[in-house]
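Incident log entry.

Two folding requests arrived from the same account within the same minute. Monitoring flagged them as a possible duplicate submission, but the sequences differ. Recording both here for audit purposes.

Request one:
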Amino acid sequence: MLAPLRRGSGDPTTRVDASGEVWWATTTPVGPTTLRLQKDHAGTVTAAAWGQGASFVLDNVPDLLGASDDDSGFVAVHDVVERGRRASRGVRLCASGRVWDVLVAAVLEQKVTNREAWRSWRELCRRFGSRAPGPFDGLWAAPDPLQLRQIRDWEWHRAGIDGARRRTLLAAASVAGRLERAVELRGVAGRELLQKVPGIGPWTAAEVAQRAWGDPDAVSVGDFHLPTIVGTALVGRPLDDEGMLEALAPYEGHRHRAVRYLGAAGVQRPRFAPRMPVRNYRTM
């Protein structure tokens, strides 16, 4: 359920131990905070938090674990979607309750491979973020808007972040407080608010909406692989963005949920699909 919030196995903001205990560091309006989630054999989840924003994070735990997600009215039109729904075993869409952290990560993932973006995410968190409060050593929160605006030009280059993504992040940091209102607006209105920032388009807004408020209908239009995945699964051939939206039309209101079920069903892009090259950031 919390997997969408984790940016690769080396994400410095998240740790999952062998027992399934989850540690998650996040920014809040009052400072970095650490959340620990433990689930017992009966399925009961116990939460504890450290830091000035502990009450903010604890109050949001039910939504983080999908309590506000409502899949009523969802009907699986395709067998593969129904198979993914059964495989999900009632997993709901999580909602972090906060735009900033997921926005930074989403901007870093614009037009680059996950491998590149996750390396930049690790660099930003460890070098410019804050050590997460609490007993878990080695956990970091993402840089808050003030910390991000203090990063020097050459440090952006060292982190493998090009000028376009840097400008987008700085523009978002200058209005970060206002962007948090997107969680309250939700849906199309929330996504449109995010897109008022130069450099944030439909893809980035959807990626944020899926995580910040668990938007069940936010489709990542403009994704490099998604139209091929959806098209191959639902109509038997790769599609473009327009074709993908047409194929997903029966799931209006729950299109992102349908895409998640495709993932749960094990649907992946064909092996012969073109791959986005990994760039050498040192030559940028």
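Request two (distinct sequence, not a duplicate):
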Amino acid sequence: MAVQEARQSGMDAGVGEAAHGGGCTCGDCPHGVREGHRRAVAAFLRKRDEFAAGQGLPAAVAHSASASRQWVSEELTQAAGVVAERGRAEGAAWFARVWRWTAVAVWAAVVLLLVVQALTAVGAGWTDARTAGLLAAVVVAAALTAASWFHRARGGVLAPVIGEDNRLSTSRAVAAGWVLFVVYAVLVLAGRLAAASGRGEREALIDGLGLRRGVGVVTVLAVVCGVAVLVRRVVGVRVQAQRLQKVRAGRPRAADLLTDDDGRGSFADIQYVVISAAALVFAAVRLGRRPDQLPDLPWGLAVVVLVSAATYLAAKYAEGGRPVILSVVRAREAGDLDGPIRTGDDIEIRGVGFVPVGARSADLLSRMVVRIGAVNVHVPLVPVKGGFANPTDTVLTVPVPAEVEPGRVEVQVITAAGVETNRVAIDVTE
């Protein structure tokens, strides 16, 4: 009751502020989804740090540690919900405008190619190969622009490389890069073949498409495309089997190609992107030097790319793991007497994997639930300066509610990704 009264008074005090929230479009305050999200994040961080310092607690709950913790957790959960809502709105707006950025980037690449060709043609003269290369770039850019428009609600050109978790997929991005390069190379040869006048020149161009010329490129293309398909299957199966925890991101970011879901640098992703990019640059130079055949990627370089792809795939098989409860004990503060677990006591659940990778935000932490017998207990958010002391990846602290019947009951954790841990039995006394 004290918690509800305190929350009602807080809501009444904040009516004026809510009237001019982040989504407001009136003339006397900033508006827009980006500004709304920024302001919601700033308000949440300010509130979290105030609570961590012991400030802002109403007198109705200040006398009780458990009531204070519950009130603070509920307030932070509501504020985190506002942040998540603003973040989803910003993500939707980002998708609506990013297709234009990608289309501009594609045509900027065409202009850059034209400038490079014009500079390299000084002294050497303009050739049919340069014309074919420029026309091939225009065709590819036009196709990508059309695809970007049709998929403008899903990120334009980026739509095929965005995974189910709303992050950029490293394997799909690498495969897309090789596919686009091979398509461009074939179009260059097709343009040269259309402009060829002599029979010998036409036969030489057709021979340039032979497998013995481009076996390295074809092998790499087959492997990276296979890795992209296989990684999607591996991740999907592991998520369904609850051996891998995945949470959805607010929107894709370029850093997704080099980091894990938590934003930390990933060796497997970095080496795969860097080595593939270097091989693509080499293949592009070979195409520029020999525009009459598919780039003959040396086997040494091709094997390096294959080893990199195998390393990336092995990392996908090895990542993740199911959350596990190792033990459940009665939480004890300084000065407390030792004793059995009773209703109303706090229990400390020790284990691993309680917080999924990418689920460090407050709105996802607040979704964690501990099932004690037949009662579902939401894990309270305990703020500290710069973060939360509860929940953590290895320890959760929750109260045993009065609804739990005394006797032997089982404890189980449900993470923010919806994955259930093993069950551990405890004895609850009256």
